[in-house]
Design goal:
The structure is a single chain. The chain has about 300 residues and is an alpha/beta fold. It has a single domain, classed as Alpha-Beta Barrel (TIM Barrel), CATH 3.20.20.70. The chain has ten helices and 16 strands. Helix 6 packs across helix 7 and helix 8 crosses helix 10. The structure holds 3,4-dihydroxybenzoic acid. The site of 3,4-dihydroxybenzoic acid has 15 residues, from loops. 3,4-dihydroxybenzoic acid (DHB) binds next to loops.
Length: about 300
């Protein structure tokens, strides 16, 4: 039988399916439910220094082939969230803590806190498409990506995974900057900057007007980004964007990802989506004679 285990740099995972940031992940109970459903690790909602309420409603709208949201980085702040991370870690779960800050100092402070709480890695949100002073406002500039990554690397021992924005001309350039900063891996992609207008009220639907688009519609964008990144850097890539089933995960793996994150699909499919994706991966691997994940990573890149 095929071996589903994988490695993201030094981080060993029982399978390649990880819960993406921002989906059913603000409490230990929710994170443990994803692990029960088969996720090898979970990523927290992005954590900031202080509690934040986020934008007023409407913050989410479901579209034909995906979901558009602008939550405004709501989170309970690092002191409360640290306790949730510790509960999952104490129960044997692997938590990748997503953090956001205004600058390298804030990112480094948060990274130290999540390391102390028991996180197995830290994901840097350099890619939220619509938060003023945060996310992609910093992460669209390769020099800032390098600087923040390098500061966090100097502050913690756990692996550091910058999460990149697809809303740029050259995402591979951002990945190279992350690699220069010492990143252990990069995560691609965060949501695609998008908008929905309701013609009957002649207004954008989201209170923030602009949001981040996720779900099946963005998968081809994510796969292309991973393909470009994997051709430009030596560090591992974690793929994300529109994965619902084993075949979707295989696209990312064959583009060059060694693990994948699943978020939006947890809404309709529930936390069992991780187990289902893994079962479908295993069936494919057995059918095609792939012994392990590594044998498939970047398989579509050769020609
Ligand atoms: C939010 C953050 C993100 O990183 C993203 O991709 C979408 C939304 C938010 O909290 O608003």
């Amino acid at each position: 039988m095929a071996d589903l285990s994988t490695k993201v740099g030094a981080l060993r995972l029982g399978n390649p399916a990880i819960l993406a940031s921002g989906i059913s992940d603000v409490t230990a109970e929710l994170m443990l439910a994803a692990i029960d459903g088969g996720a090898a690790a979970v990523v927290t909602k992005s954590i900031g220094l202080k509690p934040r309420e986020g934008h007023k409603n409407p913050t989410v709208v479901e579209l034909e082939n995906g979901v558009l949201n602008a939550m405004g980085l709501p989170n309970p702040g690092i002191s409360i969230y640290s306790k949730e991370i510790s509960k999952v870690a104490d129960a044997g779960g692997k938590v990748i803590a997503s953090v956001f800050g205004k600058n390298a100092t804030e990112f480094s402070f948060l990274a130290k806190k999540v390391q102390a709480a028991g996180a197995c890695a830290v994901e840097l949100n350099l890619s939220c498409p619509h938060a003023k002073g945060y996310g992609a406002e910093l992460g669209s500039d390769p020099e800032i990506v390098r600087e923040i990554t390098s500061a966090v690397k100097r502050s913690v021992k756990i692996p550091v995974f910058p999460k990149l924005t697809p809303n740029v001309a050259d995402i591979a350039g951002l990945a190279k900057a992350a690699e220069r900063g010492g990143a252990d891996a990069v995560v691609a992609i965060n949501t695609v900057k998008a908008m929905k207008i309701d013609p009957w009220v002649a207004m954008p639907v989201l209170s923030n007007r602009i949001g981040g688009y996720s779900g099946p519609a963005i998968r081809p964008i994510g796969v292309r980004c991973v393909y470009e990144i994997a051709g430009a850097v030596k560090i591992p890539v974690i793929g994300a964007g529109g994965i619902t089933n084993g075949s979707d995960a295989l696209e990312y793996i064959m583009a060059g990802a060694c693990a994948v994150q699943i978020g939006t699909a947890v809404g309709p499919a529930g936390t069992n989506v991780f187990g289902t994706v893994c079962a479908e991966l295993e069936a494919f691997m057995d059918a095609r004679g792939y012994r392990n994940i590594k044998a498939m990573v970047g398989k579509a890149r050769c020609a």
